[in-house]
Specification:
The chain is α+β, with helices and mostly antiparallel strands. About 15% of the residues lie in helices and about 35% in strands. It is built from 3 helices and 13 strands; from the N terminus they run H-E-E-H-E-E-E-E-E-E-E-E-E-E-E-H. It is globular and about 55 Å long. It starts with a helix and ends in a 13-residue tail after the last helix.
């Protein structure tokens, strides 16, 4: 029996690793193209901002998401030649600004949300996203909330902040225990006294499954026994025989 066959049998006895969890959100990277024309807005001395104009309907800005106030949000497409925000997205080429405003010296709070469903066996969620803020406004915050079917907040993260300076992104993660059912993820961004304060990109929400039983199923036991039997037969057949006639040198 060949070594290749034995390796294949042994590999079949090793449980496969868990599959990568799917993102429960649609358009989590804000890459879907809005139905708005792209604009280049000159800004001195920072160059230009490549973005989609406001005001607009929510579906035109970020398909599959709902903005609390579309008039103070904006969607940017890299490259962005503006010295106070990242030049490129954390993922793909587009990212969301929750707190756009033509006014300075104001504190704006805005939200973006999307519904999701946890299937059978779910015990919770893992959230991952990238955050940035306009340079000089490190006090801007972002918070994740989970709402139930009655729009009641049943779980929320601590306040996320970004302290890494201008034109950078930082990843934020959060986990919460949740049973199977329908929910809404809401991200609340609060600016710190200026415009374009809270930027968001690459939002991923994954379902956490309950721990699998450590006792193999009967079918698994049968498969394992069949594999061990095959290995035993292969080794028996490959064992050298001791009943052969002595060689001519020993006669």
């Amino acid at each position: 029996m060949s070594f290749k066959y034995l390796a294949a049998v042994a590999a079949a006895l090793i449980p496969a690793g868990p599959a990568l969890a799917a993102n429960l959100l649609v358009n989590g990277g804000f890459e879907d193209t809005p139905t708005l024309p792209l604009l280049y807005q000159p800004l001195a001395p920072g160059g230009h901002i490549q973005h989609y104009p406001d005001p607009a309907e929510t579906s035109q800005y970020v398909p599959s998401w709902t903005l609390g106030d579309p008039s103070v949000a904006d969607l940017y497409r890299a490259p962005v030649a503006y010295t106070l925000v990242p030049a490129s997205a954390a993922e793909g080429s587009q990212f969301l600004s929750l707190n756009w405003s033509p006014l300075g010296g104001v504190i704006l709070t805005n939200s973006v949300s999307q519904g999701f469903v946890l299937g059978a066996g779910a015990t919770g969620i893992d959230l991952s996203l990238f955050m940035a803020v306009e340079a000089g406004f490190d006090g801007s915050t972002l918070q994740a909330q989970i709402l139930d079917a009655a729009d009641t907040v049943i779980a929320q993260s601590d306040l996320f902040t970004h302290l890494d300076g201008a034109r950078t992104w930082s990843q934020k993660t959060w986990s919460a225990a949740l049973a199977p059912g329908a929910y809404t993820l809401r991200l609340n961004g609060t600016g710190n006294g200026n415009a374009w304060d809270v930027l968001v990109d690459d939002v991923r929400l994954e379902q956490v499954q309950g721990l699998a039983s450590s006792v193999p199923e009967p079918s698994t036991w049968a498969f394992m026994m069949f594999g061990f039997l095959g290995v035993g037969v292969a080794l028996r057949r490959s064992k050298p025989s001791t009943d052969r006639a002595p060689s001519a040198a020993l006669r």
